[in-house]
Design a protein that fits this description.
The protein is of the alpha/beta class. Helices cover about 40% and strands about 15% of the residues.
C-alpha cells in the first residue's frame, strides 16, 4: 500500500535554546525525509523573565491561522501552542500532542502546581497523544485521565548520520589545550533539569584519584553562570571547562573529545519520566559511558558503566569507564543504532500510527 503524504505543521512550546527543540527538529526532518511536506515553525529565542512564553502565543496564532495543513504536531503541553492548535482543529484539522517530559515536576511547591494547571487540561482536546516511554503513558492514563487508545509511541531517537565520526573536528582537543589529559564530557542544556551538583561531587572524587582529568561541560542555558559559581565554590575551577554557546554542528566534536561521557539523574520525580537524548548520542559516537540507574537510564545497564544513585559509586564507574576494558562502547553503539535510529522510528510511526490518526 502506498503511504499518503501529508502537509504537517510542527510547533514547539518553549524557546529555541531548550532541549526539546531538538526533538521537534528531528521529528520534522525525518518526516520530511519520508516525503511529507513539513513546516517546523522556528521557536522564539529565550527572552528575559520568560517573556518568550506569552509572546509566542500570538506568534504561533498568527503563523498557523492562515496556513493550510492536514495535521499539526505540538511538542509539549502548554497554552501558547496548544490553544492555537485547538483553534486550528475548528478548521477540521487533525492535531497531535507530543508529551516528552513531566515538565512541572522539575519545580517544587506552588510553581509545580502552577505548571501542572497549565499543562494538564489540553490532552483531552487532541486527536492523539505521543509519548516516548511507558511511565509517561501510565501517568497520562491514571493522573491526566487520558484514554489509553489515544496514546501512541514516538520514542526518543538519534540521528546516526549526524552523530558520526565524519562530523568531528579532530583538532578540537588541541584548540582547547587539552592534549595529554583524560577528558570527561557532559553535554546538556543547563537549566532546572540539569543535576549538576552530584556530577561535580563525583568528578571531584575522580580528580583526586586521577590528576590529569578535566570535565568539559558542553552546553548553554539559563543556569550557566550559577553552575560556574558552584564549580568555583567546590574548588574545581582548574578541572572544569564550560564551552558556553556553540553551533549545533559542534556537538559530535565535543562528544568525541571524551575519554568517557557521563549522565546522572537524581532520584526525583521528573527524572522517572524523561528520556535521555545524550546517552543515545554518546553511544552513537562509540563512547564509553558512565551513568546511574534512574528512569530511562536503567535500560542501558548492559552497554554502560552504570552505578547506583550514589556519587561515590558514580565516581568509581567513571574511572572504570575511562579504562573501558569490557568494550561496552562497541556493544552500546550497536544497540542504539539498531533500536533508536530516527529513520526507523519515524518510518514505524508513519506506518503504524500516522495514517490511522489522520484518516480516522
Amino acid at each position: 500500500m502506498v503511504m499518503r503524504k501529508y502537509k504537517i505543521i510542527i510547533i514547539y512550546s518553549r524557546s529555541m535554546e531548550s532541549g526539546g527543540a531538538l526533538r521537534a527538529s528531528y521529528i520534522a526532518e525525518h518526516l520530511e525525509k519520508r516525503g511529507h511536506d513539513v513546516e517546523f515553525i522556528k521557536p522564539l529565542k529565550r527572552l528575559p523573565f520568560q517573556l518568550d512564553f506569552p509572546i509566542s502565543f500570538f506568534y504561533y496564532m498568527l503563523k498557523i491561522l492562515f496556513l493550510d495543513c492536514d495535521l499539526i504536531i505540538v511538542i509539549k503541553s502548554y497554552p501558547n501552542t496548544c490553544i492555537p492548535a485547538i483553534i486550528k482543529k475548528l478548521q477540521d484539522k487533525k492535531i497531535i500532542l507530543d508529551i516528552d517530559d513531566l515538565d512541572y515536576a522539575y519545580r517544587d511547591g506552588i510553581m509545580m502546581h502552577i505548571g501542572k494547571i497549565l499543562q494538564k487540561p489540553f490532552p483531552r482536546f487532541f486527536d492523539a497523544i505521543t509519548v516516548h516511554n511507558d511511565n509517561l503513558r501510565e501517568i497520562l492514563i491514571k493522573d491526566w485521565n487520558t484514554p489509553a487508545n489515544k496514546i501512541f509511541n514516538l520514542p526518543q531517537g538519534i540521528d546516526a548520520g549526524f552523530f558520526n565520526e565524519k562530523n568531528v573536528d579532530n583538532g578540537l582537543r588541541k584548540k582547547l589545550n587539552l592534549e595529554g589529559r583524560k577528558i570527561i564530557v557532559f553535554t546538556a542544556h543547563l537549566d532546572v533539569s540539569t543535576d549538576i551538583k552530584p556530577i561535580l561531587e563525583a568528578v571531584k572524587i575522580v580528580t583526586e584519584r586521577i590528576k590529569n582529568c578535566t570535565l568539559v561541560i558542553a552546553g548553554r542555558g539559563p543556569y550557566l553562570q550559577n553552575f560556574k559559581t558552584l564549580v568555583e565554590k567546590m574548588g574545581l575551577g582548574s578541572n572544569v571547562i564550560f564551552t558556553g554557546p556553540f553551533e549545533n554542528q559542534m556537538i559530535p566534536s565535543y562528544i568525541a573529545l571524551g575519554d568517557v561521557c557521563i549522565v546522572y539523574y537524581e532520584d526525583r520525580l521528573a527524572n522517572h519520566f524523561r528520556t535521555s537524548m545524550k546517552i543515545r548520542e554518546y553511544l552513537a559516537m562509540k563512547k564509553p559511558v558512565a551513568c546511574n540507574d534512574v528512569g530511562d537510564l536503567k535500560q542501558f545497564k548492559e552497554y554502560t558503566y552504570q552505578s547506583k544513585t550514589d556519587v561515590h559509586d558514580f565516581a568509581d564507574k567513571i574511572i572504570e569507564a575511562l579504562l573501558d576494558k569490557n568494550n561496552r562502547s562497541a556493544y552500546g553503539y550497536n544497540y542504539v543504532i539498531q533500536n533508536f535510529s530516527w529513520d526507523n522510528i519515524i518510518e514505524t510511526f508513519e506506518k503504524e500510527s500516522l495514517e490511522k490518526l489522520v484518516s480516522g
